Amino acid sequence: MNSKPNYQPSFAEFVILMAMMTSIIALSIDAMLPALPQIGNDLGVLEANNNQLILSLLFLGLAVGQLVYGPISDSVGRKRPIYVGFVLFVSGCLLSMFSHNFTLMLVGRLLQGIGVAGPRAVSTAMIRDKFEGEGMAKVMSYIMTVFILVPMLAPSYGQMILAFSNWRWIFASYIVLAVSTMTWFALRQPETLNLEQRKPFSMKRILRAAKEVITHRIAISYTLSAGLVSGAFLGYLNSSQQIFQAQYGLGQRFPLFFAIVALSLGGASFVNAQLVMRFGMKRLAHVALRGLAILSFLALAMSLLQGGNPPFWQVMTYFMTAFFCVGILFGNLNAIAMQPLGHIAGIGSAIVGSFSTFISVPIGTYIGLSYNGTVTPMILGLTILSVLTLGVLWWAEGAKRSLQAKA
Predict the structure, then answer these.
(1) Cys staple from 35: which of 113, 167, 268, 278, with CB 3.0 to 4.6 Å?
(2) For residues 212 and 352, is the Cβ–Cβ distance under 8 A?
(3) 149: Cβ–Cβ under 8 A, 6 or more apart, which residues?
């Protein structure tokens, strides 16, 4: 399967395939949102906030899995670890599909996360094999634009399945998608890591690469920034079903408004793809982050003055503008973190992805579990995290400022 074929997929096919590989994560999260109350009731969950663990455990598995797939892909090539990931993901889906208690559901979700980490981490390494710098940021932004269609449609997809059957069939549909995508990938995508570029698998090399990432000021600071921003987004995902359906009583209209926010996020990724070659990744990231911090401060004041229950149009206006900024940040922060790691792309993408996810999971889980019937905890989390990220990026550029001052 690693022999070089005599064809190369077009740029468009490559982008769509990579987007499909990563969109399984979004589908595994967002299609579950309308089903959370039903799953909780069927599996005996007493506290509604605990249903959010169905989302958080997948992210935890994603964080763990990425540490494994990246280093292995540097040794055996990119394709085989992806196949293993798909098999584990399908196994986790079967476990969740036939679960009869909440613990077994969470174990299945953890296994799904570990499995989907393969396509997620290794596809990033494949992109880095083919592109770098602003070119990689452009590809990542296009992928995010395609990828964002999934969270736009996923809640409606999950709700449609619930209208005709029960939540277990959502997991069955994941299995069909995973098998279809793996088949497409196997038949159409050539290996991107040549034999002469591969490195023997060893713990020493992994630890050396991890040390390089952790001690590289730009790589580690932008990884940390990506984790903080992702934590804010996970907090929104965890809270969204309760905010839209319980707090604002949208009922079956929840997927529509969730899709509108997702469209804003996807639109930002498309805009970023058009602008990044002209203005550069760092400039766009800094502007978007400042915008997010200012918007969040204003929204927090609005929420506090109105008892945590501002009019829905105000909340939607904030969500759409804030997550437009987040959409700009997503593609750029990861691309900047990966920029100095081209020579260790597999391990580099694993450490960047895993470390940022390990940061985001407890943050997003805490924000979600803090939901108290108002939007204040979520907006407060976004405010604090955007300010912290500004501080991290200020530190990241500190060495550059010092050199300029000496000059």
Answers:
(1) 167
(2) no
(3) 23, 266
**345/272 Cα distance (integer angstroms):** 23
- pLDDT of 216-236, one tens digit each? 888 899 999 999 999 999 999
Domain boundaries, the chain: 11-193+202-400
Q: How far apart are the first and last CA of the chain?
A: 53
Which of the four pLDDT bands, split at 50, 70 and 90, describes residue 3?
very low
Which residue bears the tokens 């070119």?
Answer: 135
The domain defined by 11-193+202-400 carries CATH number 3.30.70.141: no
Range scoring the smallest mean pLDDT among 3-7, 20-24, 241-245: 3-7
Quick one: tokens of 88? 């584990």
Segment 43-88, tens digit of pLDDT? 999 888 899 999 999 999 998 898 888 788 888 999 999 999 999 9
Report pTM.
0.80
Concatenate the DSSP letters of all residues of 70-135 into one string: HHHHHHH-SHHHHHHHHHHHHHHHHHHHT--SHHHHHHHHHHHHHHHHHHHHHHHHHHHHH--HHH
Under the banding of pLDDT at 50, 70 and 90, the label for residue 275 is: confident
On whether the CB atoms of residues 61 and 111 are closer than 8 A, the answer is yes
Residue 122: count other Cβ atoms within 10 Å of its Cβ.
31
